[in-house]
Amino acid sequence: KEIVLSGIRPTGKLHLGNYFGAVTNFVKMQHEYNCFFFIADLHSLTTHPTPTDLNGYVKNVLVEYLACGIDPEVATIYVQSDVPEVTELYLYLNMNAYMGELERSTSFKDKVRSNPDNVNAGLLTYPSLMAADILIHRATKVPVGKDQEQHLEMTRTFGNRFNRLYNADYFPEPFAFSYSENLVKVPGLDGKGKMGKSEGDANCIYLADSPEVIRKKVAKAVSDGGPTEENQPKPEAIQNLFDLMKIVSSADTLAHFDELYNKCGIRYGDFKKQLAEDMIVFNSPIRERILEISADTDYLRQVAQRGAEKARISARQTLKDVRELIGFKPF
Ligand code: TYM
């Protein structure tokens, strides 16, 4: 079976972007492939979370993975820092990751722009850590949203470079994966760009949001004065809301509002109400399971422990091979 790996940073609650960009594919892939899904706690250290926040967020992602339907009996779920082999591979990959290419990474440039006071080495070498996550299990399929595509390209570069340097055909090439035709980018509620935590809480619908919160957030979503001419293309903010509707609502509902828009008969109040209700219907079962599972700390501990054991078996094998290729051998 092909090996699949993906992860999410524990920076808070999962939102619809995480779900439709990544987790929905995790849930489907687990029955078809040999899957590893992890919680990227080392990656989240770039922003210096407090120990309490970090610990709570890690637990949170674990709970939400399970609530979304990842089955620990089928897939391996683990916390990144429980598998120290990853950090050793990260060190080796860093030796062949060049300053120029790391600095050119779009996500690095974005971080430098948005937070110029915290441009640390971990941020610069984020792509090598991500490559280590993937290559440690020699994964070939990586279910992620559109924003991770460049990181996958860098992973292939680092893996191929390692292969060339040690004259070995060792690491296979991993590719971003989605069951949908294209990689997904879920828009936020702020009228521009993607749904994301760094874009602010009001921009995100979290899986754990209550119906009340969802209604409020959607009611406040950026829109405009409405179409003035029939059959015109939609401005970005409106298109984003339609894209969200496409994700959570039925095809009939979407077609209905699309027609109203084209005939200049749309009332954004009604449109948003419908969108909010459909989000609530989508979220409710997941939200219920989140509340249930998070109470069961023993179970969570056991899932994480077993996951780490399984992940380490695979990671140790890779590291053993890698050390040998590098030349760390007994005399
Ligand atoms: P992170 O934690 O930012 O996001 C987790 C996953 O959610 C997807 N995603 C989205 N997809 C569509 N639309 C959105 N608005 C949206 N927001 C987030 C992301 O594409 C991602 O799949 N670097 C990664 C974590 C990581 C990783 C890995 C992933 C570390 N090592 C190895 C795969 C393999 C990240 O920061 O994702």
Automatic annotation (TrEMBL):
UniProt keyword annotations, A-Z: Aminoacyl-tRNA synthetase, ATP-binding, Cytoplasm, Ligase, Nucleotide-binding, Protein biosynthesis
Catalytic activity, EC: 6.1.1.2
Binding residues for L-tryptophan: D133
GO biological process: tryptophanyl-tRNA aminoacylation
GO cellular component: cytosol
Motif 'KMSKS' region, residue numbers: 194-198
Enzyme type, top EC level: ligase
Oligomer and partners: Homodimer.
Function: Catalyzes the attachment of tryptophan to tRNA(Trp).
Name of the protein in its database record: Tryptophan--tRNA ligase
Species per Swiss-Prot/TrEMBL record: Pedobacter antarcticus 4BY
Gene assigned in the entry: trpS
